[in-house]
Design a protein that fits this description.
By secondary structure, this protein is an alpha+beta fold. It has a single domain (about 5-145), classed as Gcn5-related N-acetyltransferase (GNAT) (Aminopeptidase, 3-Layer(aba) Sandwich), CATH 3.40.630. Helices cover about 30% and strands about 35% of the residues. The chain has helices at about 15-25, 30-40, 80-95, 110-120, and strands at about 5-10, 40-50, 50-60, 65-75, 100-105, 125-130, 140-145. Strands 1-2-3-4-5-7-6 form a 7-stranded mixed sheet, sandwiched between helices. Helix 1 packs across helix 2. The chain is globular, with a radius of gyration of 14 Å. The relative contact order is 0.15. The mean pLDDT is about 95. Bound molecules: coenzyme A. Coenzyme A binds near residues 73 and 116.
Length: about 140
């Protein structure tokens, strides 16, 4: 019971895909998750509350840095500090993989995510103008571990 972040193995990719579908309007399929997670540099992390999946993160270790490929909390559990809790687990997992930094890209218009990452201590290191389909800018964030 309670709240815990737990590694999710590639064989359970569909479990993360199901959470992703609840978090994003345009989500990735079970097959896309399975394909990504077959890559040995990719690690899955689930956030579980009272045996229910409420969040996910997918990480990729590149050299000595870890990229957050996707990250989300289901709508019903947002605004309760779950994002911060899951980021702590992401940082722990990245450190355990030997990473010295986390990075990610996020739309400048995604206010909740920008607030979360800035609140956690990420710094914006660059911008990709009009990067997304809706022409919004991508902001690249980095956090030294
Ligand atoms: C981004 C997301 C993970 C945040 O999760 P969360 O559990 O609601 O985050 P937390 O409750 O830990 O809140 C983190 C901070 O963001 C703030 N925040 C949350 N929602 C917000 C919103 N809609 N607008 C502005 N700030 C917001 C919180 O107030 C908190 O700020 P604080 O440090 O001042 O207390 C969640 O909204 C989500 O899954 N969104 C859809 C998927 C997504 O966009 N993922 C990121 C892609 S890179």
């Amino acid at each position: 019971m309670g709240l815990r972040a737990t590694p999710i193995p590639a064989k359970d990719a569909a479990r993360l895909a199901a959470v992703h579908q609840r978090c994003f309007a345009q989500s990735w399929s079970d097959a896309e998750f399975a394909s990504l997670m077959q890559n040995p540099t990719v690690q899955g992390l689930g956030l579980v509350e009272d045996d229910r999946d409420i969040g996910l993160a997918l990480l990729q270790n590149v050299a000595s840095e870890t990229e957050i490929l996707t990250f989300g909390i289901i709508p019903a559990r947002r605004g309760n500090g779950m994002g911060y809790f899951l980021l702590d687990a992401v940082a722990d997992m990245a450190r355990a993989s030997g990473s010295s930094a986390l990075f990610l890209e996020v739309s400048a218009t995604n206010l909740a995510a920008v607030h979360l990452y800035q609140g956690y201590g990420f710094e914006q290191i660059s911008t990709r103008a009009a990067y997304y389909a809706d022409r919004s800018d991508a902001w690249i964030f980095r956090l030294a571990l």
